[in-house]
């Protein structure tokens, strides 16, 4: 059933002859002729304006997920999460995913997957449904992490610990999807790999002030679950 308008009567439904408007007459449904763009009842809007990326690394049989902690000056301060962010005007979903990983962690993943799992949830304050495409991105085991000022700590942790640390159930389900679709080596996971597509995307120029700030305040650490050291101190430990 399709319903897209703000007001009016009737509903657009699928029919062998195409999409038509259905109306009720004395308790019975019947087809009404006329254009398919008829005015329909108001429905809850659906928004797809954010992306979520679960960055991970693996060595032999060990797999660790990257979690980053929201800074004290942000909403939900202290919450651990994967990489998340908004899709900017003119961006594709994959462009937004690659940019957010670069801005929030300084990492350049080796491989990418567009997970079959999609996060969906209802936002009461805005009375809308939000749909969030979810990606998995693999980085090298020794790649350093540079945080922007949006996050103050990071940690590479096991999937079990990651499930306990994240706030949202949709993110816990995404971790399970990563293990089932990607880490398992399944044929479905292989079909969902988008590494070449992401590599073909030209990087977009930073336009928001926080990006410039992220470059000047980038931080690095080689230990798990620690507050990163200032960018000037770039000695390996």
Rg over alpha carbons: 22 Å
Assign the CATH topology of the largest domain: Nucleoside Triphosphate Pyrophosphohydrolase
Shape: globular
The beta-strand count equals 14
Give the class-level CATH name of the largest domain: Alpha Beta
At the fourth CATH level, what is the homologous superfamily of the largest domain?
Answer: Nucleoside Triphosphate Pyrophosphohydrolase
Number of domains: 2
Helical segment tally?
6
Q: Alpha-carbon distance between the termini? A: 59 Å
Query: Percent of residues in beta strands?
Result: 35-45%
**Secondary structure category:** alpha+beta
Q: How do the SSEs run, as a string of H and E?
A: EEEEEEEEHEEEEHHHHHEE
Main sheet overview: 8 strands, mixed
Q: What is the CATH architecture descriptor of the largest domain?
A: Alpha-Beta Complex
- Give the helix level as a range of percent: 10-25%
Short description:
With 237 residues, the chain is α+β, with helices and mostly antiparallel strands.
Task: Describe the protein's architecture and organization.
This protein is α+β, with helices and mostly antiparallel strands. Helices cover 22% and strands 35% of the residues. The chain is built from six helices and 14 strands. The termini are far apart. 27% of the residues are buried.
């Amino acid at each position: 059933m399709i319903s897209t308008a703000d007001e009016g009567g009737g509903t657009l439904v699928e029919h062998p002859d195409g999409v038509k408007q259905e109306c009720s007459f004395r308790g019975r449904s019947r087809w009404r002729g006329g254009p398919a763009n008829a005015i329909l009842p108001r429905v809850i809007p659906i928004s797809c304006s954010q992306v979520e990326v679960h960055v991970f690394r693996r060595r032999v049989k060990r797999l660790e997920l990257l979690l980053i902690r929201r800074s004290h000056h942000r909403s939900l301060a202290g919450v651990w999460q994967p990489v998340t962010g908004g899709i900017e005007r003119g961006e594709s979903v994959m462009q937004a995913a690659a940019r957010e990983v670069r801005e929030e962690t300084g990492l350049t993943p080796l491989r990418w997957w567009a997970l079959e799992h999609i996060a969906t949830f209802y936002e009461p304050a805005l009375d809308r449904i939000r749909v969030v495409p979810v990606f998995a991105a693999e980085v090298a085991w020794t790649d350093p992490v540079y945080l922007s000022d949006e996050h103050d700590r990071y940690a590479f942790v096991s999937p079990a610990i990651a499930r306990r640390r994240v706030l949202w159930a949709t993110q816990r389900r995404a971790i399970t999807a990563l293990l089932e679709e990607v880490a398992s080596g399944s044929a479905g996971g292989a079909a969902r790999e988008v590494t070449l597509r992401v590599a073909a995307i030209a990087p977009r120029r930073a336009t928001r002030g926080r990006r410039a700030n992220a470059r000047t305040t980038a931080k690095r650490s080689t230990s798990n679950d620690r507050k990163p050291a200032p960018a000037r101190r770039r000695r390996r430990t």
